[in-house]
Model the fold of this input.
Amino acid sequence: MGRWVVLLAVGGVIAACSDKPRPGFLPDEMGDPGQGGSIGVSSGASGSGGAGASGSIAGAGGNGNKGGSAGSQGLSGNGGAVPMPDARAKDGGPPLPLTFDPNEVYLFGTLSEGSCSRDAVANIKAPDAYAAGFWCYHPAYTERIRGGKLLYLNGGAGALSQLLEFVPDLVSSADPSTISYPDDPASNDVVIPTPPCDPGGDGILNVRVGPTGRIVHQCGTPGSKWWYAEDGSKVYQGDLLALGNDDLIAVQVDSSLRGGVVKLSDGVVHPWPAGRIPQAIRSHPNGFHVVLLVQSTGLPQELWEMDANGTATKLGDYPKLPDGGLPNASAALTPDDTLFQMTLLNTFDAVARLTITGASEIIYTEKSDPHVKVNSGSLVTGP
Done:
């Protein structure tokens, strides 16, 4: 079971050994997608190029991989991704690259509840296919997607010492009880410099990623609230919740979670409607889309647009969660304003999918014993 507190989820896998399509992951070195998304992966009727396997969108058969002759016509995709065989990177062997789709939602959880050394990540739509290879100690709710890669904070020698780009050690859909978790899993991850944070001292406390891939980070220095750019220059002092386009950011202005949007060029806070707690934030061309929870009642969850000039426009209400569930822990908002919300369903951790048009359904529950479980994990999507 997860820990249940209302937190802001600001952000958000995997191709696997199964012969069934898996949504949301594309290995980097497969054949190019055909129009609609079929990809040549395995051997086909003719040559090593292989038949196209289901892609993220439907299309013609995939091209052959690395110059092989094109295989037979691929299976039309329907939201799935390219399957991958079980594989584990060996010492000196090639990495297992995966592309994380910023439009998808991922569950960063565990293969073994109660253990910090069995973390894994999976597309919330396919929680039995997972990638593993994470350091034991790292803070929840700090995973980010940038340029198709998953970023996370490790524990390391310092309390929160480094920002890492995840390189999977293990990609599988096998029963977790049958696999050996990778040793020293962070050793092949890519360290992203975060000046002026001292990786041997206070380290890095948090990170935000913008829609263009820009990163800002916050050092763990006690009492400091400065956020820094990748070159170490100061960006903002305060509680920064999300990066938008240009110089627009979303911020929290006090301990009651009141917040709004700010242009870094003038520093003026344009607040979102009072009496509401942010649940999820997504950058949009006009500013941000923000899911706000009415603080006095806990319901409904509302969708607002905050534009670059601070104008707040209500876009709609999300329906109640199924079976009387309450929003908890973590949420993720996709570009089409679908809200993925953690909840508790009959004592089981669950995730609901909500839309402002009225859809409300459970798409994940631990009652079905998925391979990747919530524990104290989070939902991750793009910025």
About this structure: The two ends are 27 Å apart (CA to CA). Confidence is low (pLDDT under 50) at residues 1-97.
